[in-house]
From TrEMBL:
Enzyme class: transferase
Full protein name: histidine kinase
Coiled-coil region(s): 433-471
Catalytic activity: ATP + protein L-histidine = ADP + protein N-phospho-L-histidine
PANTHER family, per the entry: HYBRID SIGNAL TRANSDUCTION HISTIDINE KINASE C, TWO-COMPONENT HISTIDINE KINASE
Transmembrane segments: 208-230, 237-257, 297-316, 328-348, 355-373, 389-409
GO MF annotations, alphabetized: DNA-binding transcription factor activity; phosphorelay sensor kinase activity; sequence-specific DNA binding
């Protein structure tokens, strides 16, 4: 029994072992099927393996960080060619995706330094087994986010520690088709130690190419200067043109092989194609000039025509991204250069000195083109490409050097002719020197006069500066005195308002008292900030330190903003590394700092969150804390960030800014932080976030029993009654649309007007325009400075729209200057009322505008608007009436044509058309259709076009009887009376 158990256990273990071996074999076979094996013997002469046609996997879209690090291609699509284009792109490719390939190495390459090389026109991030190893450019989800980079000559070192499969993943994006049908990428894996020196040597050769191009440019510029010095020798001009083109072409070749920017590479290739055409034209023309002085016209036309056709063809190739084509340029190049060589042969026959140099240079150019540039005989393998280009660059110097020697001989002969004139030039130089001496004396005298003038001006400026400083001191004293004087009347406003709140139960009185208290407190806070600025400027502010719990102080201020946070639906979080932090600090100044920063964060955050963090600051020596407030508000543009701590500076000074402010808070905060030995800085990105960071040293204090007094920050009301806008807009009272972003002022005006008007409210200009278009009110009151859309734009938009052009508009604003008033009137506003305004003045304006509107409506309703061409209406109203008349005329004989159909023809709702016509001419759409029909009937009967019965049907009545009844009611006589006259 015991032995049976032993054998049974042994059998179970063997079965388990065999099962594991089988499972490992299955996994290995799976990997072997999907894994590319890298063997050292496959590297070959180039020391690398072309890798983009191996088995790859593709995943469209993004991966999570967990998916990126798990090194798996499960569920990915297979792909056998990564250098794909638009036609053979992988399924799901939208310009960005993930590519993966499993590789393993043989025993010889384990722990050996290998290289990964990639060529693409997009951007990449490369991972090995989920870990980043490199990449080029910036991968993005759109063309705007992506930064393309080509790094085909860069190596990424990799090591594979074993022979197991490893996953290479490439996060790749490309939204540009720089080269025809190439959206994907090419990859190579090679021996780093063998490949890196070769690439370094090739790069040195490219640098030598650049040196050759620089020498050609210098040589060309030298001969260009010679032409400028001696314009009659035009041979220098053609030579300079040819050599400069050769140098520019060399730079283009260098950029093509060395740039990491795909677009620059593509432009460089186009520059090379078009440059060789222009170089050929310049070289042949130069040879013509050497022989003929003035080349024959037919030769110039033939050469220029051929080169122009090739130039246009290469531009067409560049614009249409054509990568390969047969252009037979090598044959054309040979023909043209042999024609130029014929000119050199003429020079040799004429026994021109140095002509053999030009002949040798032309032969070298022809040989270079066929043996290196075009490589007609395929003498240069890929690994010697840099050597081929270097040989070509050095060889291209031969013709310029030969031509330079030839031109130098000509220049020497020309120099002999100039020697005779040297004495004359020296004489003229002496005369010019004498004149120059005289001019210098005159200039010296003028300089002395100017120095004296500068001294006088400097003295005047110093005097003016002293006066300005004195005026500034007077202004500061006056400013301090007047702000102190403000505190007494404010005290007499705030305290009675508090008494009214506590002593009365009248809700109406309490609401107005809270309104007075809140705005008086806000004014008092602004005055205190101005006084702090003045004391800080004079250096008279002192720091009074006392024990306080900084954590409790911050929590208290956060709680005081609780109602505002709930109102704006913002999440406000506070994190502290201490439960209590007792320090010696100035409570008033810390209160001002915390209140300013929290109120700013909440003011400029319409949605999202505000995070407040208090923690130990390790950057400063000794005991110090770091206080950070970060919000997800509208942010600050980078170009305005350096100025936010300047006094009275506002990042958004426009009329459409989203929040009110004076630009004092941050300036005071910075001065207070500096006064207590701290540092403050701000980080922000427009549209994303703003973070204010304070670092401040502190002195530890013993805990005290003194409680922190509760402070209510300015601008936050303990309770505000919000009046809901009306929902029923159909009534007898005039409908008024109130557009105001300040809640308290909006509630005050609404409460004042509700007894005499029906009020519809909007919180900003954009919402106000929508409400005006939808409800067609009798009058509109709008603030000027509002978020998104200001009052000027509200007025201009509504006055230009046919639905709302007749509505009177009153603009309320604190900008009472003449230019602002003129601008408001130019936008079409009917009245401009400055804040603070008198409630009776607003009522009088409203009554007057509505009364005038009613008088105009009665006036227009009594006129014959349908057959008069000289109406007294404004042009936009006249156009509207004309459109209404045309719409009714086109359906005059249709009995069923109704007000609904007229509204659809006018592009309005029935309610909008009804309110527009009632406000304009005091007629409903149905009445209007009936009157137009009867007016036309009267005209037809008067001209005796048809009988009464026929006219009835012509103007859309169902029967002559109903027509006669309606006609008699409208005109006061029967239709037959008109036809009988």
């Amino acid at each position: 029994m015991y032995r049976g158990n032993i054998f049974s256990n042994i059998s179970i273990r063997w079965y388990a072992l065999l099962w594991c071996i089988a499972l490992l074999c299955a996994v290995k076979s799976t990997y072997a099927q999907d894994t590319s094996v890298i063997r050292s013997r496959n590297f070959g002469v180039q020391n690398e393996i072309y890798f983009n046609d191996s088995l790859w996997y593709f995943h469209a879209g993004d991966l999570t960080r967990a998916q990126q690090s798990e090194a798996s291609t499960t569920g990915w699509d297979t792909l056998h060619y990564t250098a794909f284009g638009k036609e053979n792109a992988p399924r799901g490719w939208r310009g960005v995706g993930w590519f993966g390939s499993w590789i393993r190495v043989d025993t010889d390459l384990v722990n050996k330094k290998l290289s990964l090389r990639i060529n693409h026109d997009g951007a990449s991030e490369i991972f090995l087994d989920g870990k980043p190893i490199g990449g080029y450019g910036k991968v993005g989800n759109s063309a705007r986010e992506m930064v393309a980079m080509s790094a085909r000559r860069e190596l990424i070192p990799i090591w594979l520690p074993d022979t197991r499969p490893h996953l290479i993943t490439i996060h790749y994006s490309n939204f540009f088709e720089v080269y025809a049908n190439f959206y994907g990428f090419q990859t190579w894996i090679g021996d780093y130690n063998q490949l890196a020196p070769k690439i370094q040597t090739a790069n040195q050769r490219f640098n030598y190419m650049l040196m050759c191009a620089a020498a050609q440019l210098i040589l060309g510029l030298l001969h260009l200067l010679l032409f400028l010095f001696y314009p009659r020798q035009k041979l220098n001009l053609y030579y300079a043109l040819f050599v400069l083109l050769v140098g520019i072409n060399g730079i283009g070749i260098y950029l093509f092989y060395r740039t990491n920017t795909p677009v620059v590479q593509y432009f460089s290739q186009s520059l090379i194609d078009e440059g060789k055409v222009v170089m050929m034209w310049a070289a042949v023309m130069l040879l013509y000039i050497l022989d003929y002085r003035k080349p024959p016209l037919w030769r110039r036309i033939a050469l220029t025509t051929v080169c122009a056709l090739y130039f246009i063809a290469y531009i067409y190739k560049f614009l249409n991204h054509i990568e390969y084509w047969v252009d037979y340029f090598a044959l054309v190049f040979l023909i043209c250069m042999m024609d130029g060589f014929w000119s050199v042969f003429h020079l040799i026959k004429k026994k021109q000195k140095g002509a053999w140099l030009i002949s040798a240079g032309v032969v070298v150019v022809i040989l270079l083109y066929y043996f290196t540039w075009d490589d007609v005989f395929h003498l240069w393998p890929y690994q010697l490409n840099s050597m081929r280009l270097l040989v070509m660059a050095v060889g291209e110097l031969m013709l310029p050097l030969c031509l330079s020697l030839y031109l130098a001989l000509n220049f020497a002969r020309t120099n002999e002719n100039l020697t005779a004139k040297l004495f004359e030039v020296e004489t003229l130089s002496a005369l010019a020197l004498a004149q120059e001496t005289e001019k210098r004396e005159l200039i010296a005298g003028e300089a002395r006069r100017l120095e004296e003038l500068v001294r006088q001006r400097t003295a005047e400026l110093r005097e003016q500066a002293d006066k300005l400083r004195e005026m500034d001191l007077v202004k500061s004293r006056f400013f301090t005195n007047i702000t102190h004087e403000f505190k007494t009347p404010l005290t007499l406003i705030i305290n009675p308002a508090k008494e009214l709140i506590t002593e009365t139960d009248d809700e109406h009185v309490q609401r107005y008292s809270r309104l007075i208290l809140n705005n008086a407190s806000r004014l008092l806070q602004l005055i205190n900030q101005l006084l702090d600025l003045s004391r800080l400027e004079n250096g008279s502010m002192e720091v009074n330190r006392a024990p306080l719990d900084l954590v409790a102080l911050i929590r208290m201020h956060i709680l005081s903003y609780e109602s505002l946070v709930k109102q704006k639906e913002i999440s406000l979080h506070f994190t502290s590394h201490w439960n209590k932090l007792w320090i010696l600090g100035d409570r008033d100044k810390l209160d001002a700092i915390v209140i300013n920063l929290i109120s700013n964060a909440l003011k400029f955050t319409d949605k999202g969150k505000v995070e407040i963090v208090l923690q130990q600051d390790d950057d400063l020596p000794g005991a110090s804390f770091s206080f950070t407030i970060k919000d997800t508000g509208q942010g600050i543009p980078a170009e305005k960030l350096p100025y936010v701590f300047d006094r009275f500076y506002q990042a958004d000074p426009s009329d459409t800014r989203s929040a009110e402010g004076t630009g004092i808070g941050l300036a005071v905060t910075k001065e207070l932080v500096a006064l207590m030995g701290g540092l403050i800085r701000i980080e922000s990105e427009a549209g994303l976030f703003t973070a204010v960071l304070i670092s401040m040293p502190y002195q530890v204090a013993n805990a005290a029993s003194e409680p922190i007094l509760e402070i209510l920050p300015a601008g936050v009301s303990p309770s505000v009654t919000v009046l809901e806008p009306i929902t029923n807009i159909d009534g007898d009272k005039p409908l008024v649309l109130l557009i105001e972003d300040h809640q308290e002022l909006r509630d005050f005006i609404q409460q004042s007007l509700k007894d005499n008007y029906r009020i519809l409210t909007a919180t900003d200009g954009k919402e106000g325009i929508t409400f005006a278009m939808e409800h067609i009110p009798n009058l509109i009151i709008t603030d000027l400075m509002m978020p998104h859309v200001d009052g000027y734009e509200v007025s201009s938009t509504l006055k230009k729209d046919v639905k709302t052009s007749h509505i009177p508009i009153i603009i309320l604003t604190a900008k009472a200057d003449t230019d602002s008033r003129i601008q408001g009137i130019e936008t079409g506003a009917d009245a401009y009322l400055a804040k603070p305004f008198e409630k009776r003045e607003l009522f009088a304006l409203m009554e007057n505008l509505i009364s005038v509107r009613n008088q105009l409506r009665e006036h227009y309703s009594k006129q014959d608007l349908w057959f008069s061409n000289a109406l007294s209406m404004p042009s936009i109203e006249r156009d509207f009436i004309t459109r209404v008349r045309s719409a009714v005329e086109s359906h005059l004989n249709e009995e069923g044509y109704s007000a609904d159909q007229l509204a659809r023809d006018m592009g309005l709702s029935r309610t909008q058309l009804h309110r527009k016509l009632k406000d304009l001419i005091n007629q409903s759409p149905g009445e209007l259709i009936r009157i137009i029909r009867l007016q036309y009937a009267h005209d037809l009967l008067q001209r005796r076009v048809a009988t009464v019965a026929e006219v009835a049907y012509m103007v859309g009545f169902s029967s002559p009887a109903s027509f006669s009844a309606s006609f008699s009611r409208h005109f006061g006589f029967a239709p037959k009376t008109v036809s009988a006259i």
